[in-house]
Amino acid sequence: MDNDGLSNEQTEKILQFQDITGLDDMNVCRDILIRHQWDLEVAFQEHLNIREGRPSAYATESRAPAVVNDRFLQHVFSSIRANNTPAPSGIGGLIGYVFNYMVNFWYSAFSSFVTTIIGLFRDQESIPADPIGDVLKFIQTYNEKYPDHPVFYQGTYSQALSDAKNELRFLLVYLHSEATSEATAFCRGALADPQVIEFVNRRMLFWACDMASHEGKRVANSISVRVHPTLIIIGMRANKMIIMGRLEGDCSPEELIRRMDTVVNDNEVWLNQARQDRLERDLTQTLRQQQDEAYQRSLQADQEKQRRKQQEREEAMRVQAAIEAEQLAEEQRKEDIERLKLELAEQVPSEPATGAPDTISIVFKLPNGLRLERRFHNTNTMTDIYNFIFCHPDAPDSFELTTNFPKRVLECAARGPNDEPGPTLLQSGLKNREVLFVADLEA
């Protein structure tokens, strides 16, 4: 990596980003940090979103999952005593305390119900123009004033809820109000404690925003935040996102961890059940996908087998057709030869009488050993001899005539009606008692 122009702080951030992301190329790490103004948290959150196939935190806002705000389903911890009322004393004081507690409880439940109803109508309002801007502006301001804190979620409340739902993790929501001294003390004390930071970073997502911003006001109305500081723990329960814990007021780091641990331990079973259900669904889906793939492979194998069988049948039919065509051609050829023999037999000259002048007696030796002897007039042509041999039933269909000694092949072939007649026996040099050999050309 080229270190020119990089400060020691920037180089250290590149090494940290590479260590937490596992990226091998330091130039890639540098480019990602540059695109996010060297903000390590923002760059890491964006990298996780991209790697997990989720949209960027700067993408268009989407509607948040519905959150159930039911006081009967959540732990409520409060470090604030209304109007600093002293602890009750005596029977009358105890009765008054219980009465006030019941009134406050039902008032709180009723106000939560009313807030939920109002929230249904407020959901119809247009989403703020720049909710991510409100979040990032708060994080920057908070970092400058309170440098020690858990890792903030770099995105909107809707995206934080969606990620918590998709990842089956707890979501810790904090709405900050700089105007209250309790919130300032809480940020400098409990929220900056190393053990609190480690607990939150390890076990949940942490989203925060300023109550003075449009996004902060909207979220505060939706989850009924009325005192400061307040931490809200949201998680999945029975396929719904619900508020599981409400931690109101400043407290010590040890007390804050105890409260968060109580909420997490009491509700971890729901997340574990959701994880188990999701795992079973994934396994079922994977098994179904594997079965579908196996069925497709089997179907393709069957189709390939059928295709090969069809090819084999077509090839066998083609070979059979070729054999039949060859047999038909051979039969046609034999029929043509038989017909030709009948036609040529009529052209063979009759045999001269014994002792007739200018006759030649010729002995023919056929390939099968048969001897044929016949007299021809010396003016008969070699074509006449060819026709005589060709028409004999024991003679081959294709042959040539040769003399014995000296051995020579005689000019002897079939001729058409319009062809010139072949040489005569006298011109071919044949003598009386000549022996000619019939050679089968197809043997």
From TrEMBL:
GO cellular component: endoplasmic reticulum
Keywords for the protein's UniProt record, in alphabetical order: Coiled coil, Cytoplasm
Pfam hit, one: FAF1
Localization in the cell: Cytoplasm
UBX domain ranges (all copies): 355-438
Superkingdom of this protein's organism: Eukaryota
Biased composition (Basic and acidic residues): 302-315
PROSITE patterns for this protein: UBX
UniProt-listed InterPro entries: FAF1_2-like_UAS, Thioredoxin-like_sf, UAS, UBA_8, Ubiquitin-like_domsf, UBX_dom, UBX_domain-protein
GO molecular function terms attached to this record: ubiquitin binding
Region of interest (Disordered), ranges: 290-315
Main location: cytoplasm
GO biological process, alphabetically ordered: ERAD pathway
Protein name: UBX domain-containing protein
Organism: Anopheles atroparvus (European mosquito)
Lineage: Eukaryota, Metazoa, Ecdysozoa, Arthropoda, Hexapoda
